[in-house]
């Protein structure tokens, strides 16, 4: 990359160039990806990969796997999307985002390939950057999250050590299919011949698809309740029993019963890697689950009021949020909660009013806004055409909506922000700049906040 003491490409200019691809929409298919990786010398073949897909929970599972492997002293790359604050967050090694000069140089490298004739979408470009950086940095393993679906996703160019499918739900139906079975076929597209699969898919129609795909490709399948067990022991952790490990009272830094399920899948994936010779043990599981951080997913910020940030943006995610609000003894009663909600509807098929109705009853007041970001928001004009919770306020600008939502909240009260990761990221940045700080669950004290 850029030599020490020389000035490499400007990051702002590099990001502006990459942003030109933001509005090309989703472009499923692997031909463009294979062409650019060929031009880069196939970096995806140089790094052992754990591949993670799923409608919900794939980012959390990827973060958990990364934390466990990192606790084992391995040099682990992590590629996820979207980002909360800045593009560099999508690419991490050892928990640290890619340095800005490095990112600028790699975008410039992609630009040269595009100008030479390679056609790429935004996500294809970032995926190529991830594989290229991980190879050059000589990571021991890379944990790679799919962007959309699986079968035709840009990340599906790898032959991984283990594949993980966290679950299948109804989201992105205009791209992936209208039924659970159709969406499951896309997710199960990451299954490779003979490669072990860990699946948290629970709905019968989708589960049958995953089973059939694994049988077809002779891919060993692990499922909770059948091949390993995960049992929640308190609000703070879980027990795990698998082929190699019997672990009791594992502390988990992530909130919510659904994160226990994700943690179980992550532990099983690491157990499979251990059976393959990767030097990871039960002690590393404990350390990784205790230390893992995944901002914007049932994350609490502490300040003059408490703020709960959750990127729930589809029915299953919203149900998990509602369950956490209903079950969590750490929250004040509903009359002392305010929900700030905003969501996108890029595919035009989202039941946004139904999702809001699922969670609105957990708060005494509701403020609805338009989230920032590249995806088409549900606009205030759209909300005026549907049934809203009683007393709900509409604000076009998310900053004014945040101010409105905070009115009359005092110490001990809760502001919940949900519906869009883009809204969560924007609000998180604003509040961290005000001095709010993430609150740890596992006794480590306040965490250092970042909006890098």
From TrEMBL:
- Its Enzyme Commission number(s) read 6.3.2.17
InterPro entries reported in the protein's UniProt record: Folylpolyglutamate_synth, Folylpolyglutamate_synth_CS, Mur-like_cat_sf, Mur_ligase_C, Mur_ligase_C_dom_sf
Q: Which UniProt keywords apply?
A: ATP-binding, Ligase, Magnesium, Metal-binding, Nucleotide-binding
Residue ranges occupied by any Mur ligase C-terminal domain in the UniProt entry: 296-420
Q: Which Gene3D superfamilies match?
A: Mur ligase, C-terminal domain (3.90.190.20), Mur-like, catalytic domain (3.40.1190.10)
Essential cofactor(s)? Mg(2+)
GO biological process terms, alphabetically, are: tetrahydrofolate biosynthetic process
Which reaction does this enzyme catalyse, per its entry?
A: (6S)-5,6,7,8-tetrahydrofolyl-(gamma-L-Glu)(n) + L-glutamate + ATP = (6S)-5,6,7,8-tetrahydrofolyl-(gamma-L-Glu)(n+1) + ADP + phosphate + H(+)
Pfam families documented for this protein: Mur_ligase_C
Q: Name one GO molecular function term.
A: metal ion binding
Please provide one cellular component term from the Gene Ontology annotations of this protein: cytoplasm
Q: Which family does it belong to?
A: Belongs to the folylpolyglutamate synthase family.
Q: What is this protein called?
A: tetrahydrofolate synthase
Q: Print the organism lineage.
A: Bacteria, Deltaproteobacteria, Dissulfurirhabdaceae, Dissulfurirhabdus
